[in-house]
Structure formats: C-alpha cells, structure tokens
Amino acid sequence: xxxxxxxxxxxxxxxxxxxxxxxxxxxxxxxxxxxxxxxxxxxxxxxxxxxxxxxxxxxxxxxxxxxxxxxxxxxxxxxxxxxxxxxxxxxxxxxxxxxxxxxxxxxxxxxxx
Length: 113
Prior knowledge:
Oligomer: single chain
Radius of gyration: 33 Å
Number of helices: 5
Distance between the termini: 81 Å
Low-confidence stretches: none
Helix content: over 70%
Order of helices and strands: HHHHH
Shape: rod-shaped
Strand content: under 5%
C-alpha cells in the first residue's frame, strides 16, 4: 500500500523543514482521499480555463448587445424629440435610419401619453 510506504519513508528520512511540511501535506492528501492524478489535475485546469474563456466571451457579447441596445434607445429618443418638434417623416427617417413603420409606432405612443 502506497500510503504505508510513505509513512515508513517519513520515519526513515528526515527532510529540511520546508520539504518536511510539503511531504506531510502530501501524506494528509492521501489519507483524506483528496489526492488526484496528474491527468485529473490537467482536466480540472482545462475546465477552469474553459469557464474563464466562456466568461470573457459572455462579457464581450453582453457589452456588444448593450451598445446596440443603447444605440436603438438613442435613436428612439431622438425620434421622439424630432416628432415633438414637428419634423417631417422623411427628415426623421434620414436622421435616424429608422423605418417609417417604427417612426409611426413611436408617434402613436407619443399621442397616447
């Protein structure tokens, strides 16, 4: 049994303090059943890196969507202001790039307020 061998080695070999502490920690890991294989450690690290990469991509996508939403809201606000000022439908279309249908929807909403 590997654990027995390590314990025997611990009694036979005295290490420098720092190394003795590291060795003792390794023994505790084996005793507690928390020792994992190198392959499993690599898999855990890969999963961790994958999650981090996913978070970064998600954050970038969220920022991109937020900017787009902000631009849409800005165009709607400008459209509302131009309607209030009595601007023509053609002028508002050119100024905002919104469709005639969307401008008319915004105009209807304003009239309901």
